[in-house]
Amino acid sequence: MQFLANLKIQFKIMMMLGLLGIVTLGVAWYGGSVMKTIDTGYSELTNVKLPDTAKLIRVNRLGYAMMYSGYKTLAYDGNSPQAKKAAADEIEAYKQAKQYLGEVMAQEKDSTADVQAIEAVLDELHALLGPAIEMGLANNNAAAQAQLAKADGLADQLTTKSRTYNDRRVAEGMKQSDAMSASAASAGMMLLGVAVVAIIGAMGLAVFVTRAQIAGPLTRLQDAMRALAGGENHVAIPGTERSDEVGGMAKSVLIFKEAALRQEELAEAKKRADAAQALVVETLEDRLGKLAGGDLTATIETRFDTEYDGLKQNFNAAVSALRELITAVIESAETISTGSAEIAQASEDLARRTEGAAASLEETSAAVSQMDQRIKATATAATKTVERATGAIGVVDSGRSVADEAMQAMSRVSESAKGIDNVIEGLDKIAFQTRVLAMNAAVEAGRAGEAGRGFAVVADLVSALAMRAEEEAGRARDQLTATQTDINAAVDMVRRVDSALGAIVGDVNEVHSLLETMAQDNQVQATAVTQVATAVNSIDQTTQQNAAMVEQTSAAARNLSSEVNALTEQASRFNAGDRSHRKPVRSKVHAMPVASNAPHVATVTAVKQTSAAVEEWASF
Q1: How does pLDDT run across 426-477, given as a tens digit for each residue?
Q2: N or C end of the chain, less CB within 10 A?
Q3: Cα–Cα distance measured from residue 550 to residue 542, given in angstroms and rounded to the nearest whole number
Q4: Cα–Cα distances in angstroms (integers) from residue 343 to residues 124, 573, 586, in the given order
Q5: Does a structural domain hold residue 287?
Q6: Pair 400, 519 in one domain
């Protein structure tokens, strides 16, 4: 039993489950073997017996098919396709039946004799049907019919043998199935009985183990814990020698027992400590009350226990440090009060001077800004003048281009006039020749006599028309000569206009160069004045900020003086003992007014420099 007592509870449970598992595995193995035997039997029935029986039935059907094929050769003409197909079907049915019988003999070696008997009848039937079919194909129906009558008996014999053998096979199969069903029922009852016995045994073992090794020790340990909770600190703790979880719990309870015994010892010590602590609390309460009243000489002189001696020393050291601190604060407050008053006076003087400088600098900044605006306006006007001069140059250049184009157009007109003169000269020659031809035509008409009278009239009209053409050509030549004279005069005038425009362009270019130089100088001046104005504005803003800062400094100095006075009044409430042995701290702030003049001097210098720059730009 000691072995079970030292096992963990989980191992005990696993041992019981393992035993139950072994029994279960045994039952499962036996049931599996029985089921395997039954499965083998049923497999033989379904996979061998039944398919072979079906094949034997098909052999019987194929025998009748052979007989039917023989009779079909009698029903149809021997040369017909139906008769020939019937002969082929008989051979195919015979081969298929032989194949089925071979498969049955291959599957069932013990049935070879019965199958061979059936096969012998089948062969004999085929041997009789062969000649009968040949006779039918030869249309010898009488002989074929006699031969088929002999085969009918063999067909009946084949059916009888097949049916007898199949009936015996079916009876054997039913007998084997009944035997397997009885075996399955017997195995099921046996498995049920073994399972019931295994469950009862496992439950009995579980009850024994849980009572003897788990529930019983836990009940005894529970009683001990109740006694310990009731104040019986000397009760015995059972099960501490065990190595399982119950033993671990017993050891934990034993620790609680030892802690309870130790707690009794600590309670006695606590009573002694409470008395010493009450003395310390009362003393501290008294000294802290004095400190709250402002008495910094209230130190602890009472004798404490050793564990509170450090508290006493720390309290006395803290009171001493606080006393020295308050004394130093009082003396520093007096010194700071004197210095803050001097700082406040100097700050007020500096504030007044800074405000004056800021006002002067603001006026200077306004003047420089106005001058900057006027110079920028002058630069803008100069730029616009340059743009106008550039536009005038463009207009003059455009005029020169127009004049040049007009001169070229007149030249082209003059050349065209010369061409017209040539044309008029050609027309004049044509008119002369026409008149000559008209005269010749009149002469020839005169020679023709009365027959050429009409032609003579036409010749006269043509001669008159030629003379009129010569007159018109003369007038056109005179008009063209006058036009050429006017064109030459116009071309000369356009040349003079182009020369004048060229002189104007030269003068305008010179004026444009001078204006562009003036505009660039104005831009440079405007940039410089803008920089001066920016610098003056920056100085003005800095001076304004300095003035505001000085005002803040003055206000801060006055606030500091008030705070120091309040601090002195608060510090005087404390009793720090005799302070006659301490040396007063002298003030070192008497130099502040002198130092405060530095910003003012720098500001005045900057203003003077700015005024000089402004005067220089104004003179320019």
Answers
A1: 777 787 778 787 778 777 777 777 777 776 777 777 878 878 877 887 787 7
A2: N
A3: 12
A4: 152, 28, 15
A5: no
A6: yes
Helix (H/G/I), strand (E/B), else coil: 319: helix
**Are 499 and 612 in a shared domain?**
yes
Closest by CA position to 389, among listed 509, 521, 503: 509
596 three-state secondary structure: coil
Question: How far apart are the C-alpha atoms of 68 and 65, rounded to whole Å?
Answer: 5
- The encoded tokens of residue 340 equal 């803050």
Closest CA to 121 of 148, 144, 153, 143: 153
**Is position 508 within any domain?**
yes
**Burial, 596: exposed, middle or buried (Cβ in 10 Å; 0-12, 13-18, 19+)?**
buried
User: E strand or H helix at 26, and its extent?
Assistant: helix 9-44
Neighbours of 561 (CB within 10 A): 19
- Output the CA torsion sign for 427, 429, 431, 437: negative
| DSSP code of residue 620 | -
Residue type, 595: A
Type of residue found at 317? A
Task: Specify the CATH number for the domain of residue 392.
Answer: 1.10.287.950
Q: What angle do CA 521, 522, 524 make, to 5 degrees?
A: 65
pLDDT at res. 92: 92
What token pair was written down for 440?
């010749």
Number of domains making up the chain: 2
Query: What string of DSSP letters covers 321-352?
Result: HHHHHHHHHHHHHHHHHHHHHHHHHHHHHHHH
* Both tokens assigned to 411: 């030249």
CB 590 within 8 A of CB 309: no
Cβ neighbours for 613, distance < 8 A, ≥ 6 positions apart: 532
Alpha-carbon span 324 to 296, nearest angstrom: 9
Confidence of residue 601 (pLDDT cuts 50, 70, 90): very low
CB-based contacts of 221: which residues, under 8 Å, 6+ apart?
237, 238, 239, 246, 249, 250, 253
In tens, the pLDDT along 393-413 reads 777 677 767 767 777 776 777
For 37, 68, 170, 468, 496, the CA distances from 55, given in Å and listed in that order, are 26, 20, 14, 142, 138
Q: Are 536 and 367 in contact (CB under 8 A)?
A: no
Q: If we measure between CA atoms, which residue out of 183, 166, 254, 250 comes closest to residue 41?
A: 183
pLDDT (0 to 100) of residue 548: 78
Q: How far apart are CA 240 and CA 246, in angstroms?
A: 8
Q: Which long-range contacts (CB under 8 A, 24 or more apart) does 292-297 make?
A: 294/573, 294/574, 294/575, 295/574, 295/575, 296/322, 296/323, 296/326, 296/574, 296/575, 296/576, 296/577, 297/323, 297/575, 297/576, 297/577
Burial letters for 295-309: b for 16+ Cβ neighbours within 10 Å, e otherwise? bbebebeeebeeebe
The answer to the question of residue 541 being in a domain is yes
What domain range includes position 475? Answer: 307-619
Q: Does 78 map to a domain?
A: yes
d(CA 512, CA 574) in angstroms, rounded, equals 91
Q: How many CB atoms lie within 10 A of CB 40?
A: 11
Predicted structure pTM score: 0.31
Distance CA 492, CA 414 (A): 13
Could you say which of 201, 227, 253 is where a domain stops?
227
- Asked whether residue 433 falls in the same domain as residue 526, the answer is yes
